[in-house]
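Input record, target 12 of the design panel.
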């Protein structure tokens, strides 16, 4: 049945998403945790040094103990320790911030449960999708955001985010699996307000599609991907969601040039 198919695609994209998030969070968290033990060791050394100072401080401050302290300082290399502690802490801070960022992306994205039509900032949905897909881009795709000033759009945020997820992950797939030789892979996302409707353009300079493929992409089960790689349901779901929001979706594609999806949505649903 249709519901089963939709669920199947949902599960597939959920799996993809989960793998992406796990990968994304793994790096910064590993970094944070690998900094902990050298930090503990450094702090232990620093504390030991402080202990020695305290002991010595109680004694009469003669020339002898002074030179003794200097010797110890040389041994423990306090300056070096302090610098290292700072570096380790900065690294941990970066890792923790990145993790917070990912969780923020996830929170913004996963509004799938929201059943009510609400005014939302579509840039949040685009950004959270990009945060979650960041690891799939593996730093090789140049991303350009040309966000215009657009009003909030009345929609089911979770559904619209699914639209962004499906289109952008297709683009990333095209760019990374079939890049055009001699050209840097690029993904460009633009938004604008045109004739009272919000327009979202998602463009890649990937392999593009021949006309006979382009004409079928919104059909359920149409896929050019290997068995197990694609369900062919992503864009048919996209089409339905956009239609349900009284929007339109168009595709422009040329072989060896690239593909652009153009969505337009009304600002209000009434
Ligand atoms: P799936 O991704 O599971 O194949 P979709 O419905 O998401 O199913 O996409 C259908 C087909 O459309 C893909 O198999 C691919 O051939 C084509 N396609 C979609 N987006 C792009 C793109 N950005 N560049 C090239 N081909 C694309
Ligand atoms: Mg797809």
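The sequence produced for target 12 reads:
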């Amino acid at each position: 049945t249709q519901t089963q198919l939709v669920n199947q695609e949902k599960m597939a994209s959920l799996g993809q998403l989960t793998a992406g998030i796990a990968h994304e969070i793994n790096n910064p968290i590993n970094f944070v945790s690998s900094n902990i033990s050298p930090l503990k060791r450094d702090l232990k050394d620093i504390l030991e040094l402080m202990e020695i100072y305290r002991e010595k401080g109680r004694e009469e401050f003669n020339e002898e103990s002074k030179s003794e302290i200097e010797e110890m300082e040389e041994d423990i290399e306090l300056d070096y320790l302090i610098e290292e502690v700072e570096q380790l802490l900065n690294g941990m801070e970066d890792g923790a911030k990145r993790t917070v960022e990912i969780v923020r992306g996830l929170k913004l994205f996963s509004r799938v449960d929201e059943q009510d039509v609400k005014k939302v900032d579509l840039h949040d949905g685009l950004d959270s999708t990009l945060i979650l897909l960041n690891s799939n881009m593996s730093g090789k795709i140049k991303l350009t955001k040309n966000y215009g000033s657009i009003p909030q759009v009345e929609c089911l945020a979770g559904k619209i985010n699914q639209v962004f997820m499906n289109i952008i992950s297709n683009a990333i797939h095209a760019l990374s699996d079939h890049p055009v030789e001699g050209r840097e892979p690029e993904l460009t996302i633009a938004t604008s307000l045109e004739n009272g409707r919000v327009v979202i353009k998602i463009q890649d300079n990937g392999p593009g599609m021949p006309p006979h493929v382009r004409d079928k992409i919104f059909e359920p089960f149409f896929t050019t991907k290997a068995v197990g790689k694609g369900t062919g349901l992503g864009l048919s779901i996209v089409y339905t969601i956009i239609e349900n929001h009284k929007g339109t979706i168009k595709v422009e594609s040329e072989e060896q040039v690239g593909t652009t999806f153009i969505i337009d949505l009304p600002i209000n649903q009434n």
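The CA atoms of residues 69 and 199 lie 70 Å apart.
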